[in-house]
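User: Continuing from earlier, I have the next pair ready.

Assistant: Great, send them over.

User: Here they are, in order.

Assistant: Folding the first of the pair now:
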Amino acid sequence: MYHYYPKAFTLLTIVFFSMTLYSQQQGPEKWTAKVYPNPSDGIIHVELSGKFDELTHINIVDATGKSVYWKNVSNDQTHKIDLTSIRKGHYVVQMMSTNVYMKQPLVIN
């Protein structure tokens, strides 16, 4: 699956929830984002590593596209997120910065 993000002139390749970032100005750069456990009881961890921009966001949306969680985060860290107050169901975890975007499904039991 390829995504073209015109603002950053970037081509992204998704392979098993890992991405290789190709920039016109630089060579390939590896970055990963892991969401676990999945399915979850409401407490999840999002682990970001690689060459993310300084301004990185984690957004979690429900099946209707409504945002149920949003936070600016730091790179190369694991972030603990408490979603115990939201309803059980299927969600999408989006990790994004100015030059990369990744999403992963999430099930809350």
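And the other member of the pair:
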Amino acid sequence: MLRTATTTRRPDGAASWRHWRRSVRALIARAGLILGPYEIVGRMPWWLRRIERGGDVLAPGPPDQPLQYIDCRDLAEWMLRAADDGVGGIFNTVSRPGHATMASLLGAAKAAT
């Protein structure tokens, strides 16, 4: 079972959570939906090409289905900065809940095409 820094018991002798997090050598970013340039899964490019063709578009789930995604550039920048600062631990790297829905994502894709 993966544990986050907020649920893992701090080892005895660690002065603070900040000290404990810096003593962990691994930096693990648990990302949800990763979008952006050079996305190798092809999820967003597929939606953009499909919407560009026009007509009705069948979308998965209800329009108000919440999505938690992160732009690959933001994820890379954060991970590089955290690694450079010596930060370690396990982090959930997604947008805040309610940030976007399937409808808002596809609406933005339609506006972009």
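Worth noting for the second one:
Helices lie at 17-23, 43-53, 72-84, 102-112. The chain has four helices and six strands.
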